[in-house]
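Cross-posting from the modeling subforum.

Setting up a comparison between two proteins and wanted a second pair of eyes on the formatting. Protein 1 (sequence, then structure tokens):
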Amino acid sequence: MTNGAAAPAVALPRLTPAESGARAAWADPEMNPLARMVNQITHGDCLSVLRQLPDACADMVLTDPPYLVSYKDRSGRSIANDDNRRWMFPAFAELYRVLKPDSYCVSFYGWSKADRFLSVWRECGFYPVGHFVWIKGYASSVRHVRMKHEQAYLLAKGDPKPPACPPADVLPWSYTGNRLHPTQKPVASLTPLVQAFSKIGDLVLDPFAGSGSTGVAARKCGRRYVLIEKDAAYHRAAQERLR
């Protein structure tokens, strides 16, 4: 700009009517879906529910998704979408979007499908920075081997600052009895992860909430939580538990 000439006008991107409506909705706390979901378990398909959340709203993801193994327990209980992998990329792409930059995602996974999980996580932008193994005092299944462990990957979005007191990557496991869910995770096993990879007051997100163990662990640690569960029976069980 020289000789006192006015600065050229900058053309701003034009919003569609839908985008304008969405911005107006987010400005109104009563219409903000995130505000209604905090410290609640939402009943619904995580793909549709996650799309309602704004970018970079979660401080940590801690989740136990279907393992792609068509699992059924001794009583015949099953897990929705455990018989297909169509949900994987869209779900983890949404999780990457709603997770804040330089933050962590902890995801359990089925060891026999590790290659698929790692491929999808990397496609979505996550990269593994750690791996956890929980040692069980009992065998959850016996076939070629006695299966006596659970496992999860520690995934990073961006370059998160390492925790001041990182947890060990081999941890103990306590049996829940799977009373509320066929793959119910013990709160005591999740608590060290919440403490290490989030801060007091942070928002912890679990889109495959099952019986709500992530929410219980988050609340014990002074964190807020957003839980999503598709199965109506497990949603009711988690709701009662959290209530």
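Protein 2 (same layout):
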Amino acid sequence: MTTRFVAPAELLDRQGADLGAGDWLLVDQSRINAFADCTEDRQWIHVDASRAASGPFGTTIAHGYLTLALAPVMLQQVVVVDNANAVVNYGLNRVRFPAPVPAGSRVRGRVALIGASERGGAVEAVVGLTVEVEGGTRPACVAELVVRYS
């Protein structure tokens, strides 16, 4: 589901709105390995399937930061702001990783507009992102993203 805004200023009127969920994204072992390579975080729980099979989750799991790194695509699937000259990821207020993402899982982002305010010619939006794991009972990531639309 995509929620479209005609201009950044429209965000100011939709504070508190549930904006919907995006498409499912596959987090397979090749994606996990690529993330491990580019971050140099090759902990066995992420990349060693044999050892992870006897570990706490019974399989390899995605890095929490890989799950978080999918935030931009998850947000873009749900929120489209027309007539914005730039969209800048300004930061994060809070991030938690309540549940793992086992290799081979599909995840999607559920988005809510927590708040929006004018900031120096831009609209700063605080967006709640909940990353769901298909078939899971707890979210893999819960974060507050700060995004500036100008």
